[in-house]
Amino acid sequence: MKLRSIVTCTAVATAFVCLSVPFNMGGCADDVSHGIGQATGQSAPAGTDNYIRAGEKALKTTTLNEADEDAMGQSVAMTLTSRYGLNDDETLARYVNLVGLTVASATPRPDGNWVFGVINSSEVNAYAGPNGYILITKGALAKMQDEAELAGVLAHECAHVANQDGLNAVKNAGYLDAGMEAGKGADQNFAKFGQLTDGVVDVVIKKGYSRDQEMTADVNAVKFLVAAGYDPNSYLHFLQRMKAAGGGSAGSSLMSTHPGLDQRIAKVSSQIKSGQSGATLKDRFVQNVKP
User: Fold this and answer.
1) Phi-psi region of 144 (alpha: psi -120 to 50; beta: other; left: phi over 0)
2) Annotated domain spans of the chain
3) Rounded-to-integer distance, Cα 128 and Cα 115, Å
4) What's the order of all strands across the beta sheet hosting 115-119?
């Protein structure tokens, strides 16, 4: 798996030598603790270099490629970290990354670019930008009770990435129909790519995904959890707790109002087989997340 941050695989292995299940399903990640910060290059103005490279590539093709997708994912991450701030607790960041990588190893893109981070928002939310840029809020972590609940939320976001829901949403909205063409000038293609990127940011952070995308992400989240060795019932319990509390924040996949929590709870419940269980790892979650 490709993940960028600042600590070595050896350091991660040493720090978590006693944490054997289910991290053994995940990949070994270089630079785990500050993956979002380094991957997005927060000190650079809004990912300018990435936009330029992606714009140049767009001159040669009318379809979005991996470099385009990565620039869009970085734009989502930078927008969120600029708005809320990236949490600087290295222990927490490392832990969330390792849980995320464990879940990501069970997706159709186990060796993809996966970058996880925690943002300093009190809202109960999580966000998935294209090409594996996933952010969860401190507010969401505060409402969780065990590691399997965290894994469930991250699995839901990983499902959005694996299905390319952000890109598909802007394509369906018509952004790509008048897309970047080889015959156009560089300035025109650069402007169109900027519109596409703005569209992705708008979908991920403000509008949220469609009903079908949300339902599919929940279905796949359960599959990823089971494959990674976690108890899928924990994700169900988290959704039920959020419903009892009146729901979470609008505008992202975690607490999306379309579909409502009643529908999502029913769908997740139907996906879990009778008597199905797995690791919950409450003690490890409390050790790494709770103050």
Assistant:
1) beta
2) 9-289
3) 10
4) 115-119, 133-137, 126-129
